[in-house]
Write a structure and sequence with these properties.
Elements: H1 3-17, H2 19-24, H3 26-32, H4 45-48, H5 61-75, H6 84-95, H7 98-108, H8 115-128, H9 135-145, H10 152-171, H11 175-188
């Protein structure tokens, strides 16, 4: 992931921890921005525009990705090291819910118009279980996914990477599963 994305996420974490920013409602403004097209909710401008390069226009994919990820972070400000797909896969494994897989498949098939809605739903489910995710990696992915001029192969590559992370996390043995397997194999011997 890029240093640029890591710096932006560090800034958002600072907003979460800064008492002055809490009083001003920085995260509330960013959460509210999810109800609008990315980059169109003016109260979020003070927190995001400083990271937008001067040569970027209002519909630039990297600008839209900044606003989208800022809103998602504000919805669930729990930074971690797992990709969004790996965190969601672990959630599916623990809940053993087919609807989570269906939501994931819908997310993978999303176009740039409805992607923010699918991501908001995904983050809400992760928030309900207090699962952290790597927002810097998500920002890098969204900067490419939202770019209409990008070769579709790049978007497909992101989808494949997410699918790989999701299904690996689904099939990964959890510590509880490992302990149960050990006790079963010990009692068999």
């Amino acid at each position: 992931m890029s240093d640029y994305a890591q710096n932006f996420i560090a800034y958002l974490q600072g907003l979460k921890e800064d008492k002055k920013e809490k009083k001003s409602g920085a995260l509330a403004h960013l959460r509210r921005s999810l109800g609008f097209e990315p980059g169109c909710y003016t109260p979020a401008f003070p927190y995001v525009e400083r990271f937008v390069a001067e040569d970027k226009h209002s519909q630039d994919a990297s600008r839209q990705a900044l606003y989208l990820v800022a809103g998602l972070f504000a919805l669930h400000p729990k930074q971690g090291s797992k990709s969004l797909a790996a965190a969601f896969g672990a959630l599916m494994r623990e809940r053993d819910s087919a609807s989570i897989e269906q939501r994931f498949i819908a997310l993978l098939g999303a176009d740039t118009q409805n992607l923010p809605d699918y991501l908001r739903q995904t983050i809400s489910l992760l928030r309900a279980d207090e699962r952290a995710l790597d927002y810097a990696a998500l920002l890098d992915d969204m900067s490419r996914w939202l770019n209409p001029r990008i070769d579709p192969k790049w978007r497909d590559e992101i989808r494949r990477d997410w699918a790989r992370d999701f299904y690996r996390a689904v099939t990964e043995a959890s510590p509880a599963t490992d302990a149960a397997s050990e006790s079963v194999s010990t009692s068999i011997e």
